[in-house]
Amino acid sequence: MRVLAAMSGGVDSAVAAARAVAAGHEVVGVHLALARTRDALRSGSRGCCSREDAADAARAADMLEIPYYVWDLSEEFARDVVDDFVAAYAAGETPNPCLRCNEKIKFAAVLDRALALGFDAVCTGHYARLDADAPDGPELRRSADDDKDQSYVLAVLRADQLRHAMFPIGDTPKPVIRDEAAALGLRVAGKPDSHDICFIPTGDTQGFLSERLGERPGEIVDSTGEVLGTHSGVHGFTVGQRKGLGIDRPAADGRPRYVLGIEPVSGTVRVGSDAALDVSTIEARTPVWSSGTAPDGPFSAVAQVRAHGGIAPCEVVPVDDGLRVELSEPLRGVAPGQAVAFYRPDAGGDVVLGSATITATA
Q1: Number of domains in the chain
Q2: pLDDT digits over 185-202, tens only?
Q3: How far is Cα 69 from Cα 11, in angstroms, rounded to an integer?
Q4: What range(s) does the tRNA-specific 2-thiouridylase MnmA-like central domain occupy (predicted)?
Q5: Is 196 a member of any domain?
Q6: What is the CATH number of the domain that holds 17?
Q7: Same domain membership, residue 10 and residue 74
Q8: What are the residue numbers of the active site?
């Protein structure tokens, strides 16, 4: 097969490309230039699209003796990921930009261009397993390395996208990947993993949002409606948040308060006890099914609402405008804007069924 290997400059994508080469595929490496300003240097594990990352990707491609190109997708990334991220926070939601990047950039913009150029698949360094030829449609599974599993952020992919995807390292623990990179002579073998939000290298999400949204004053109220304080914008809060609320007195019972809800129109942030964070029902929109076929009627599944953790058995009920998810046990910190991913309940809940975007909880 002709394979386009997306090479970020990290160890995972480099080894994924190396395995595609070893499997006998005709591989071409491509580095995605996503940041509009790429002059800044990388700081440890923060940031992306730096000069170091591009250079590391180029060196890895040279070691593997494969052609290498840089594709500038900064305009698409700014529109579909960064602007979407800002708009979601302005609407009182909690988005996942990694999930949106996989959906809109790596397996939409990149895959579309790759197929147009005659490639058969796009190869990435995601930690997930994939059987694109399963009898009932593509079967996406959790990674063999539970700590690195990225199936949740890939659960937004459609069946037609999964049929042209390759995740060569999903069956291998991360330490083994580093050893393999070292054995191949790849200089990225010991490079730190990236974390946090790639386009906010400072880690100051609130500052990033404030620069773009400005001040939007509102009130912080408790469950009785009492005003406890004010804030400069709902974009500074997310459901489940405990620190940085700016409340100058403790709750009556002396326990910490948490953000329970955000009302962007009125600018109200509701706070209360941690017990009030329990969620038993999730409403969600725009479901995507990994096999390409929507389930016929209600079905049992395992729901996951965060990249790592937030897992519970559930019953999923199709409704006119999306899905209703009835959890068998409550989850906490579930916010509109997040994705809920569904896994098949048998075989340890490894197989992804699909996902949807959370709109409300109860």
Answers
A1: 2
A2: 999 999 998 777 888 888
A3: 18
A4: 207-272
A5: no
A6: 3.40.50.620
A7: yes
A8: 101, 198
